[in-house]
Amino acid sequence: MTAAPVTFMEQGRCKRLKAASSRDHDSVDQLVMAARPFQDRERYGRFLQVQYRFHGSLLALYQDEQLNRRLPGLVELSRFAAVEADLRDLGLPLPPRPHPVCASPTQALGWLYCSEGSNLGAAFLFKHTQRLGLDGDLGARHLAPPPSGRALQWREFVATLDSVVLDEQEEAEVVAGAIAAFDSYRAHLRAVFAEG
C-alpha cells in the first residue's frame, strides 16, 4: 500500500503562491539589479519612484475594511508613507498619486502576498542603501526592518493568509493577483528607468 499523495489543498497557500510565481519573482529581481538602483543617489531616486508607484497603487488595499477583517492589522503594514518620506529626504518631489489597482477582494490577497514578500528581499536592498549614506532614518525607511523583525512579521502574515478559507476558483484568483502584481512592478520599473 502506498501513501496518499499530498493534495493541492494540503500545501500552504503561500507555498503554492511561491511556486506559482517563482519565475515572475526571479524576473523582477533580475530587472531590479540590472537597473543598478544603488549605483548612486540619482539612480536610487528613480528606484524610489518605482516603489512610490507600486506601493501607492496598493494603498487602498491596505486600507480596505474587508481585507482588514480577513487580514487583521493589514492597514499597519503599508510602506507607502515611508516611501514618501524617503523621497522627501532626497529632496525629490512626490510624483502624482498612483491609481489604485483594480482587483477583486480575492485577487487582492495575491497582490498583498507579493508586496509583503518583498519586505523579506528588502533586507538585501537595505544593505546597498547604506553604501549611499542612507538608512532607516534617512532615505531608506521603507526598506528598513519592521520593529518586530522581518521574519516574524512575514511568518505572521503567512499564517493569517494561509488561514483564509477559499474555494478552488478563489485560489486561482489569488495566484492571478500575485502574478498581476509582479507584472505591475516590472512595468513600473521599465517605465521609470527608461525615462530621462
Question: In words, what does this structure look like?
Answer:
The protein is globular and about 45 Å long. It has a single domain, classed as Heme Oxygenase, Chain A (Up-down Bundle). The chain is mainly α. It contains seven helices and no strands. 65% of the residues lie in helices and 0% in strands. Helix 1 packs parallel to helix 7 and helix 5 crosses helix 7.
Beta-strand content estimate: under 5%
How many H/I helical runs? 7
CATH topology: Heme Oxygenase, Chain A
CATH homologous superfamily annotation:
Heme oxygenase-like
Distance between the termini: 65 Å
Helix content: 55-70%
Radius of gyration: 17 Å
What structural category characterises the helix and strand content?
mainly alpha
How many domains in all? 1
Second rung of CATH, namely the architecture: Up-down Bundle
Q: Major sheet, described briefly?
A: none
What's the oligomerization state? Answer: single chain
Tertiary shape: globular
The whole-number mean of residue pLDDT values reads 92
Low-confidence stretches: 1-9
Determine and state the CATH class: Mainly Alpha
> What letter string, H or E per element, gives the SSE order?
HHHHHHH
Q: Please provide the count of β strands.
A: 0
